[in-house]
Write a structure and sequence with these properties.
Blueprint (H helix, E strand, L loop, with lengths): L20 H10 L14 E2 L11 H9 L8 H14 L3 E5 L2 H12 L5 E4 L4 H9 L3 E4 L20 H11 L7 E4 L12 H12 L5 E4 L3 H11 L8 H10 L3 E5 L10 E5 L2 H14 L10 H13 L3 H21 L11 E5 H4 L9 H13 L1 E2 L1 E3 L1 H4 L1 E2 L6 E2 L5 E5 L7 H16 L7 E5 L10 E4 L1
Parallel strand pairs: 1-10, 3-4, 5-6, 6-7
Antiparallel strand pairs: 2-8, 7-8, 9-14, 11-14, 12-13, 15-16
Helix pairs in contact: 1-14, 2-11, 3-11, 4-5, 6-7, 8-9, 12-16, 14-16
Protein name: Tryptophanase
Keywords: Lyase, Pyridoxal phosphate
Family: Belongs to the beta-eliminating lyase family.
């Protein structure tokens, strides 16, 4: 059937406050043109992120009522631990309050000046945690991953030749681990193939370098492998996920993505000694090892969400929704990163607004217009998030891609909501020549996109 139906029924609703264009112009101006700074009540369709924005199921809410809030050894932890180990196979599971907390613990132990962490593409919090400790985050995605129009089925793959050359260039003793982001969020939600994961492990094993996954969207990546990689069509997504994890030594996970919850994460690994060090950091900064900054009810919700996210009816609906949006954007003519990824549509800001140079943030111009036109909140993933200044000349160094991410919260919006988003995209695209760039008024040294203020050029 061509019509996408949501594989769930709606039991509870939340009202959306409708605003006028004039109201939205005043709201975003007051927020310093930063969509992170706008109150949620002033948003009509919120596509800022898919992190922590999911609608939980009746079974997850039931689990919340069953949550054991004991300080130590709560049964909710053991259910959570068992579910993570069932999927990943890792010996040690350490809960944290969200993914960046797991990253902070890992890189507090392993990142320091003179150390390098190669990846296909690091996401913003991963990069920030590496650099905050003095290390250097290195992106080595394949060339196809930097071409928005290339239809390579696994554009999230790491370039194996570049990885091998980089290890030899800086020395394996200066690389405490290699990391693969699945799916590759900063590269357009693009998947990584099973072959690439396995071959990456083969490369780093020659140098005795551990391999970790940033596993936020492991289930979506597993579904892409099932649909696109030969030999996996008859395997379940759970079997595919288990194989993915079998090739790596550990992972960080923001449960706010593919565990379908509003808070939580974990750090998991096979290295018992490193895990013991991580637990010590956890106790000081997050909480006791069996709750890690989370309530027992949240651990219950994560365990149930990890079960539900691997249901193939759900994954088909999830991935097909993104494909549907891409097909409709093709009809409009609006450029986006192809093929559509797993959790979002990424508008290609360079092509969308070629008259706005990178240092004037074309993605921000589009994000501003989407909000004013239709109350849609999106996220710039380009020169604001990943751009840098030349330390000598001060000139702007843009990232390979200038994107605007429309991230789809899980089980939140219906097809009519997405059709509305498409109408707004069409309206903005028609008057794209009128869009203007932006410049910074205030910016923080790290993760500046969260709190920066702008002025229109």
């Amino acid at each position: 059937m061509k019509t996408i139906i949501e594989p769930f029924k709606i039991k509870v609703v939340e009202p959306i406050r409708m605003t006028t264009k004039e109201q939205r112009e005043a709201i975003i101006r007051e927020a310093g043109y930063n969509l992170f700074m706008i109150k949620a009540d002033d948003i009509i369709i919120d596509l800022l992120t898919d992190s922590g924005t999911a609608a939980m199921s009746s079974e997850q809410w039931a689990g919340i009522m069953r949550g054991d809030e004991s300080y130590a050894g709560a049964r909710s932890f053991f259910r959570f631990e068992a579910k993570v180990q069932e999927i990943t196979g890792f010996k040690t599971v350490i809960p944290t309050h969200q993914g960046r907390a797991a990253e902070r613990i890992l890189f507090e132990l392993l990142s320091r000046p003179g150390k390098y962490i190669p990846s296909n593409t690091h996401f913003d919090t991963t990069r920030a945690n590496i650099e905050y400790r003095g290390g250097e985050a290195i992106d080595l995605v394949i060339p196809e991953g930097k071409d928005p129009q290339n239809l390579h089925p696994f554009k999230g793959n790491i370039d194996l030749e570049k990885l091998d050359n980089f290890i030899n260039k800086v020395g394996p003793e200066n690389i405490p681990l290699c990391m693969l982001t699945v799916t590759n969020n900063s590269g357009g939600g693009q998947p990584v193939s099973m072959t690439n994961i396995r071959q990456t492990k083969e490369v780093v094993s020659r140098y005795d370098i551990p391999l970790f996954l940033d596993a936020c969207r492991f289930a979506e990546n597993a579904y892409f492998i099932k649909k696109r990689e030969p030999g996996y069509a008859d395997k379940t997504c759970k079997e595919i996920a288990r194989e993915m994890f079998s090739y790596v030594d550990g992972c960080t996970m923001s449960a706010k993505k593919d565990a379908l919850v509003n808070i939580g994460g974990f750090l998991a690994m096979n290295d018992v000694e490193l895990a013991n060090q991580a637990r010590n950091v956890l106790i000081v900064t997050e909480g006791f090892p069996t709750y890690g900054g989370l309530a027992g009810r949240d651990l219950e919700a994560i365990a149930q969400g990890l079960e539900e996210v691997l249901h193939e009816d759900y994954l088909h609906y999830r991935i097909r929704t993104v494909e549907y949006m891409g097909e409709k954007l093709d009809q409009i003519g609006a450029p986006y990163l192809k093929p559509p990824g797993g959790h979002a549509i990424y508008l290609d800001a360079k092509t969308f607004t070629p008259h706005i140079p990178a240092h004037e943030f074309p993605g921000q111009a589009i994000a501003y217009a989407l909000y004013v036109e239709g109350g849609i909140r999106s996220c710039e993933i380009g020169s604001i998030m990943f751009g840098k200044k030349d330390p000598v000349t001060g000139e702007h160094i843009p990232p390979p891609l200038e994107l605007v991410r429309l991230a789809f919260p899980r089980r939140v919006y219906t097809q009519s909501h997405f059709d509305y988003v498409l109408e707004v995209c069409a309206a903005v695209y028609k008057k794209r020549d009128q869009l203007r760039g932006f410049r910074f008024i205030e910016e923080a040294p790290l993760l500046r996109h969260f709190t920066a203020r702008f002025a229109m050029v």
